[in-house]
UniProtKB/TrEMBL annotation, chain A:
GO molecular function: anti-sigma factor antagonist activity
Its biological purpose: Positive regulator of sigma-B activity. Non-phosphorylated RsbV binds to RsbW, preventing its association with sigma-B. When phosphorylated, releases RsbW, which is then free to complex with and inactivate sigma-B.
UniProt record similarity statement: Belongs to the anti-sigma-factor antagonist family.
Protein keywords: Phosphoprotein
Domain STAS: 3-110
Range of residues in the leader sequence: none
Annotated PANTHER family: ANTI-SIGMA FACTOR ANTAGONIST TM_1081-RELATED-RELATED, ANTI-SIGMA-B FACTOR ANTAGONIST
Protein name, per record: Anti-sigma factor antagonist
Automatic annotation (TrEMBL), chain B:
TM helices/strands, residue ranges: none
InterPro entries membership: HATPase_C_sf (IPR036890), HATPase_dom (IPR003594)
Superkingdom of source: Bacteria
Name used for this protein in its record: Anti-sigma regulatory factor
Domain Histidine kinase/HSP90-like ATPase: 34-134
Pfam family, one: HATPase_c
Upper taxonomic lineage: Bacteria, Bacillati, Bacillota, Bacilli, Bacillales
TrEMBL record, chain C:
SUPFAM superfamilies given in the database record: KaiA/RbsU domain (SSF101215), PP2C-like (SSF81606)
UniProt KW keywords: Hydrolase
Gene Ontology MF term list: phosphatase activity
Protein name, per record: Phosphoserine phosphatase
UniProt cross-references to PANTHER family, sorted A to Z: PHOSPHOSERINE PHOSPHATASE RSBU, STAGE II SPORULATION PROTEIN E-RELATED
A family per Pfam: SpoIIE
Domain PPM-type phosphatase: from-to ranges: 120-335
Length: 110, 134, 337
C-alpha cells in the first residue's frame, strides 16, 4: 500500500493531504515532506487525515518528531479528520493532550 | 590503426565509436569473442559516464605488453566534476547501477585491472586493462 | 572457469547434436543438469552463448553467416545480464553476512534482556512474547522484591529491529539501577521518561506499563505511559474492565508526570497486559477487535495462565497465516487463592 503526500503551500499556511497508509515503508516519505515545513518560522501546518486508512507506530513517530520541531521553530501543526482508529492511537499515547488533533465526525469536524 | 589512439566523447553517438575501436583492437590482439564483447561493454560504460556526467572527455587505447602477456589498456579521461565519494560509486547496487550490475563496479568486473584517480572540480581518470587469456 | 568450459564443450556439443537429430527429452534433461552446474561454477550467460556458438561452428562448419552473426548479437545482449548476475551474487553474500550478524545481535538481546518468571505467592503468571522479525521491539521484565513483591515492566519501542533493541537495553539497565522496592510506579516512569527523552532520536518513543503486585495485600499498583490499556477480569461478575492511567508516552516531553492507581485482586481474578501487536493484528485487512481477544480468554479462564496466553497466541498466529506483522506480547496475572 502506498501513501501520497500532497503539499499545498499558501503564504504562512501549508495544507498537507495524506492518502493511503502510513507505515514503516511509507513513513520516511512523509517525514521528508513534513519536517521541512515545521522548520519554517511561524508556519501553520494542517494535516488532513481523511484519506488515511491505517497508521502504525512508525507513523506516530513522524508526528512526534514534527511536534518537537514545531516547538523549536515556533511553527504549529494541526491534525484533522482522523478516523476513530487513528484518533484512538493519539488518545492512548497521551499525545492528544499535547497536540492539536481533531477526529472526523460525520457531518463536520469536532 | 596505431597501437595508441584516442577518441573524444562529446555526443551520445561518440560512445559507439569508442566501443568500436575497443572491439577492433581487442580482436586484433587475439581476445576471444566473449572478451571482445566485455571490453566493448566496459568502454561503452566509461564513455557513457563521460557523456552523462562530464559532458566531454577522451577514451585512450594502448596495447600493453610484458614479457609473458599482452593486453589492452583503456584510459577514460575527463575534466568534469570529479567523484566525491569513490567508495560509494564503487559499491554494488549504488544508484547509478540500480541493480543493473553496470556502473564502475561493472567495468571493474569486465576488465582485469582497474584504477581511478579523481579530484572534485578537476576531473576523473579511470585506467583499466584486460589481458589476453592464453 | 576455462577448464570447466572446455570440458563442457564436448559434452554440450554431443547433447546439442543429439537433440538436433532426435528432439528427445533426455538431452533436454541433461542440459538442464548442465545448466545447474554452470550456475554452481559461476559461468556467465555470455559464456554459455559462446559455448553454443563454438559447438555449432564445429558441428556445422558451413552454417549460414546470418545465423553466426545473430549468435554474436545474442552474446552481446547477454553481457549486461552477466554483470547483473555477478552483482546479485555479491549482494546475496552480503545479505547472508548481515543476517548472521543480526542473529548474533538477537541472541545477545535475549541474554541481555532475559528475565525469568518469578514465583510469587498466590499468583499464577503467563507470558508470551514473540517478535515479528529477528529482534523483538516488545520488552517485559519481572523482578521480585525482598518482601515477595512482584515488579513488572512492559514496554513497546516504536520502530522495530535493532534501534528498538538498543533502546530496550537502555531501559533495562536504568530500571536495574533503581531501588525499585521503595519507588512508586509513577515515579519509576517519570525517571525513565527523563532517561529516554535525553537519549533517543526525536522520532522514537516508548509506551510502557510499570506494575507492582503486593501478595500480602493482594493489591496491584500500576502506572501507564501511553500504553494500550490492560484488562481486569472480575471472576465473580465474569466481566472485563479496562485498566489504565492517563500518561504520555516516554521520550516526548522531559518533565511528563504520571499517576498511579491500584486494584485489589480476588480469587481467579486476572489482569491481562498486552502490546499493540495484539490489537494491531490484521486478518485479511480486517483489524482484530479487542473483544475477540477477551472472548478467547474468557473461554480458557479455567486454565493455568501460561496455557491461556499460549492458546490466544496460537489463535492469532493462525489467523494471520503464521506471519506476524508486529511483535506480540501478552502477560496474564491470575490470582490463585
Amino acid at each position: 500500500m502506498n501513501l501520497t503526500v500532497n503539499v499545498e503551500q499558501n503564504k504562512a499556511r501549508a495544507f498537507v493531504k495524506l492518502t493511503g497508509e502510513i507505515d514503516v515503508y511509507t513513513a520516511p516519505n512523509l517525514k521528508e515532506k513534513l519536517l521541512p515545513l515545521t522548520k519554517i518560522q511561524n508556519q501553520v501546518i494542517e494535516v488532513d487525515f481523511s484519506g488515511v486508512s491505517y497508521m502504525d507506530s512508525t507513523g506516530l513517530g513522524v508526528f512526534v518528531s514534527a511536534l518537537k520541531s514545531t516547538k523549536e521553530n515556533s511553527s504549529s501543526m494541526r491534525l484533522v479528520h482522523l478516523d476513530e482508529r487513528i484518533y484512538r492511537v493519539f488518545r492512548i499515547t497521551g499525545l492528544i493532550e499535547i497536540m492539536d488533533v481533531h477526529r472526523a465526525i460525520k457531518g463536520g469536524e469536532e | 590503426m596505431t597501437p595508441q589512439s584516442f577518441v573524444t566523447v562529446y555526443k551520445e553517438w561518440d560512445i559507439v565509436g569508442a566501443r568500436q575501436i575497443a572491439r577492433e583492437m581487442a580482436k586484433e590482439l587475439g581476445f576471444n569473442v566473449v572478451d571482445q564483447a566485455r571490453i566493448a561493454t566496459a568502454v561503452s560504460e566509461l564513455a557513457r559516464n563521460i557523456y552523462l556526467y562530464a559532458k566531454e572527455g577522451q577514451i585512450h587505447y594502448e596495447v600493453v605488453e610484458t614479457m609473458n602477456k599482452k593486453g589492452l589498456c583503456v584510459r577514460a579521461v575527463d575534466t568534469g566534476p570529479g567523484i566525491k565519494d569513490i567508495s560509494l560509486v564503487m559499491q554494488d547496487g549504488y544508484s547509478t547501477s540500480g541493480g543493473l550490475g553496470a556502473g564502475l563496479p561493472g567495468v571493474k568486473r569486465l576488465m582485469d585491472e582497474f584504477d581511478i584517480q579523481t579530484k572534485v572540480g578537476e576531473g576523473t581518470t579511470i585506467t583499466t586493462t584486460k589481458w589476453v587469456r592464453l | 572457469m576455462d577448464k570447466v568450459l572446455n570440458k563442457n564443450l564436448e559434452e554440450y556439443k554431443e547433447l546439442l547434436k543429439n537433440f538436433i537429430n532426435t528432439q528427445d527429452e533426455r538431452s533436454l534433461y541433461k542440459v538442464e543438469r548442465m545448466s545447474k552446474s554452470f550456475i554452481r561454477n559461476s559461468v556467465l550467460p555470455e559464456e554459455i552463448v559462446n559455448l553454443h556458438i563454438q559447438a555449432m561452428d564445429e558441428l556445422y562448419p558451413d552454417i549460414a553467416n546470418s545465423f553466426h552473426h545473430s549468435m554474436n548479437f545474442l552474446l552481446e545482449a547477454m553481457i549486461s545480464y552477466g554483470l547483473a548476475h555477478q552483482e546479485f551474487q555479491l549482494l546475496r553474500e552480503q545479505q547472508i553476512a548481515l543476517k548472521s550478524e543480526i542473529s548474533i545481535a538477537a541472541r545477545m538481546q535475549e541474554t541481555l534482556l532475559g528475565t525469568e518468571k518469578p514465583n510469587i505467592d498466590g499468583l499464577d503468571i503467563g507470558v508470551v512474547s514473540v517478535p515479528a522479525h529477528q529482534m523483538n521491539g516488545d520488552y517485559y521484565h519481572f523482578l521480585k522484591g525482598n518482601d515477595g513483591m512482584l515488579g513488572l515492566a512492559i514496554a513497546d519501542v516504536i520502530g522495530k529491529g535493532i534501534p528498538a533493541a538498543l533502546c530496550m537495553s537502555m531501559i533495562k539497565y536504568s530500571i536495574d539501577s533503581y531501588p525499585e522496592e521503595s519507588m512508586r510506579t509513577n515515579v519509576i516512569l517519570e525517571s525513565l521518561n527523563r532517561v529516554v527523552e535525553r537519549n533517543v532520536e526525536s522520532n522514537m518513543f516508548i509506551t510502557m506499563i510499570y506494575a507492582q503486585y503486593f501478595p500480602d495485600e493482594s493489591i496491584l499498583r500500576y502506572s501507564f505511559a501511553g500504553h494500550e490499556p490492560a484488562y481486569y477480569f472480575n471472576a465473580m461478575k465474569n466481566t472485563f474492565e479496562e485498566v489504565n492511567t492517563k500518561g504520555l508516552v516516554l521520550g516526548v516531553l522531559p518533565n511528563a508526570t504520571y499517576s498511579q492507581k491500584e486494584l485489589e485482586l480476588e480469587k481467579d481474578d486476572m489482569v491481562i497486559f498486552l502490546t499493540d501487536g495484539v490489537t494491531e493484528c490484521r486478518d485479511d485487512g480486517r483489524f482484530i477487535k479487542i473483544q475477540e481477544v477477551l472472548n478467547l480468554i474468557e473461554q480458557y479462564k479455567h486454565l493455568p495462565a501460561q496455557d491461556i496466553v499460549d492458546r490466544v497466541f496460537k489463535y492469532f498466529e493462525k489467523l494471520q497465516d503464521f506471519t506476524l506483522r508486529d511483535d506480540f506480547t501478552m502477560i496474564i496475572l491470575k490470582k490463585e487463592v
